[in-house]
Amino acid sequence: MKWTSNLCISTALACGLALGTYTAAVAQKPAHAPRSHRAASQSSTAPRPKDHDTFRGIAAKLNTTPDALESAYQTAMQANPKLKRGQFVAANMVAHNLSAKNPNITTQAILDGLQSGKSIGQTLQGLGLSAREAKEAERQADRDAKEAQKQAT
Is the pTM of this model over 0.70? Predict the structure, then answer.
């Protein structure tokens, strides 16, 4: 009986030490930050597309090359560091769609308006379009850009 009692005490002591060690190890392990659904589905080592690859569909629609469009974007970014890619694409699409009827509506004129703090719609109104025409021009440019991107992929 004494042997069984000593065995029980030894086992309890060993389990207690093991549990204490495990608890200390868990306490020292840093907690992981919660991962969003999107972050869990993307690999952090997955290569991002190069910028000129993202301009492929738009460039085809504008009858230019992705590299030329990327170069123009970089140049525009130097003049206006707050310029977003979407604004640049929209400026090019709007100018492409409207310049035949309105020669004063150019990509550069729209980019200049954005640089001065105006929206594309405000810039187009300043270049002679009505508010309704400006809004429709922006919508059409957005549709054209989305369609060009779909065709590129």
Answer: no
